[in-house]
Design brief:
Helix content: 40-55%
Structural class: mainly alpha
Radius of gyration: 16 Å
Strand content: under 5%
Order of helices and strands: EEHEHHHEHHHH
Largest sheet: 2 strands, antiparallel
Strand order of the largest sheet: 1-2
Distance between the termini: 40 Å
Number of strands: 4
Length: 168
């Protein structure tokens, strides 16, 4: 399969969401990957979305998934139902449920998760507890997603830099 040069993401200039520069490089099988803001919301809503499903959605629906709020339980339930509907509409399949972590690691501001400490040390990067606390929820979420085993970690140091965690 030949590589197709993709244009900029439809999320790149959306001011209403946190979209990271390093995400422009998230391309797999000629499909731009699911942005962190959507992945964050899917985790909160308890739905796992496959890239093959995501790629079938209309760009306006993908933008809507990025923009929909999940601040309240009713908003999160709506998000859950909306996503289930999109998956059924485009694939005819049921959505894959995901366990919702009532206390996700990214939400712990008292300590840096062990996995993040280990990945940082492996790459000779340092993050202090005060730096961790100053990050947004989605930035903390992204760092944890990027340092997981079995995940391509090339964007971890790039995100680290983008989030202002490197001292120049």
């Amino acid at each position: 399969m030949r590589k197709v040069k993709l244009g900029p993401s439809e999320f790149k200039n959306l001011k209403e969401i946190e979209y990271f520069k390093f995400e422009e490089d998230f391309i797999e099988e000629n499909v731009r990957c699911i942005p962190m803001t959507v992945r964050f919301k899917m985790d909160a809503a308890g739905i796992k979305l496959k890239l093959s499903e995501w790629s079938k959605f209309h760009p306006a629906e993908r933008i809507q998934l990025a923009l929909l709020p999940i601040h309240t339980s009713s908003e999160t339930k709506y998000y859950h139902q909306f996503l289930i509907g999109l998956i059924a509409k485009y694939t005819g399949n049921e959505a894959t449920a995901l366990n919702i972590d009532p206390q996700p690691e990214w939400g712990n501001l008292k300590s840096i998760p062990q996995l993040l400490k280990e990945k940082s040390e492996e790459l000779e990067l340092q993050i202090s507890i005060s730096q961790w606390q100053k990050l947004t929820n989605i930035q903390r979420f992204a760092l944890l997603k990027l340092c997981r085993p079995g995940h391509e970690n090339k964007n971890f140091p790039i995100a680290f830099k983008e989030f202002g965690l490197l001292s120049d």
